[in-house]
Write a structure and sequence with these properties.
Elements (H helix, E strand, L loop, with lengths): L6 E5 L3 H11 L4 E5 L2 H9 L6 E4 L24 E4 L11 E5 L5 H11 L3
Parallel strand pairs: 1-2, 1-3, 3-4, 4-5
């Protein structure tokens, strides 16, 4: 019996890094790639269910209702890997790792896989 592919939500402001992540992870995982936290949350509200979130975007203004900050219940149960350490202390999510940029794509892929082993 074939196992269901894991889904990763990637929120990344830099298009080139989104492309690298897609290149290295798309064969093994279903990906939802976006540059916008708002788009990510709307995707989740419409049924998107990530097994892992990879994000570099934690610095949304306090008044934004769509945010990865502590007032957001949509991200509470999903582990997060932070790309860069900017504003990570403000996130109410289980941060599994912080990966500094630039990163080695092969090591990055191995680290992501280690968090998604069933």
């Amino acid at each position: 019996m074939k196992q269901k592919r894991k889904t990763i939500l990637v929120i990344q402001r830099e298009v080139s890094i989104l492309q690298i992540i897609e290149l290295y992870l798309s064969e093994r995982y279903d990906l939802f790639l976006t540059q916008s936290e708002n788009e990510a949350i709307l995707w989740m509200l419409n049924g998107g269910a990530p097994d892992l979130i990879i994000s570099d975007s934690f610095s949304v203004s306090e008044g934004d209702s769509y945010s990865l900050k502590s007032n957001n219940v949509y991200f509470d149960s999903v582990p997060v890997i932070a790309l860069g350490a900017d504003n990570v202390q403000e996130v109410n999510a289980e941060i599994k790792a912080i990966i500094d940029k630039p990163f080695n794509p092969v090591n990055f892929t191995e680290k992501i896989s280690s968090y998604l082993i069933a």
